[in-house]
Amino acid sequence: MTPSPRLSLAVELDGDGAHPAAWRHSGRPPGAVLGGAAVRAAVHGAEQAGFVLATFADSPVPPSSGLDAAGRLEAGTRAAFVATTTSRIGLAPTLQVATTEPFHLATQLAALDHATHGRGGWVVGTANDPAAAATIGATPLAPADLDRETRDVVDTARALWDSWEDDAVIKDVATGRYLDPDRVHHVDAVGARFTVRGPLITPRPPQGQLVVLADARLGLGGLADVSLVRADLAAADSPLRFVEVEVVLDAEEPAVDRLAALDADTVWEPSGALRHVGSADALVTLLRELAGVVDGVRFHPAVQAVDLPILADRVLPALAALRRSPGRTLRESLGLPRPVNRFAASVR
């Protein structure tokens, strides 16, 4: 008998919501999103609802230079903040490849995986506009150069996560040996704009390799574990494919009226993602149709204070027989195997 298709459900929890005017309709003071309580409440709500993954968007520059949200807490810091106050949900910050040193990026993510006991992930960020490049005193990369930089950084991060073998730390009190140096390796990575010898300063992550999520248009193939696809549901050659779904749900007002009120403040420009504006029941029907077509969904609630509770109370329970449940690690939650260390068979 062929097993029934399963969906992994993730949610993006940046700011007050995906709509640029969400902060005006959040029901809390505008600056509250910059405090730890708001981050903690959103992530705990998502964990209690049964989401297997929460992601945190980020960019090298503020999300808006106009009247809308003009600041955010750094994504890696947000994920680290809730790492020890959660127990099941995966946590994946967006970290940028063009404005972050690969060694420090890999170290930060490895530390997150240790802090969460194996629930860490990474959404690959490729911000490359003039304002982003200016943050490191550079000019934007040409498209081909950005493609190479992205592949180089992801490949280097993966090599660094393997630079300590699983049994490198021995902690032998009798001999005073903390680690076996033969199981710690240099990686000698050379990119177009960087060189890294390694090894990482942090032992191998509990998952071996963190879960890497990347826009399918980047074409990272096997370097990504999850390809994020849009409304066209494009094919991808990574192990898993998640579709991006923006949601505006019926609440005290119909969804179409809610969206009109939000757009009256700032228009939510199309992003290429699927956008559901309507009832929770209709969204459940859509998700059942997507099961077997994609492996998962990443929701982008228009206004977290309104749409996230509806997802938790009406959408996820209706999909109980269809959705994957959180496992011990994020890889387990997504049905991904733990990779073998590339150095495990090296000659000593």
Automatic annotation (TrEMBL):
UniProt keyword Cell membrane present: no
Domain Luciferase-like: 35-209
Pfam families the record matches: Bac_luciferase
Gene Ontology molecular-function annotations: monooxygenase activity; oxidoreductase activity, acting on paired donors, with incorporation or reduction of molecular oxygen
Record InterPro entries: Diverse_substr_monoxygenases, Luciferase-like_dom, Luciferase-like_sf
Entry keywords, A to Z: Flavoprotein, FMN, Monooxygenase, Oxidoreductase
The protein's name in its UniProt record: Luciferase-like monooxygenase
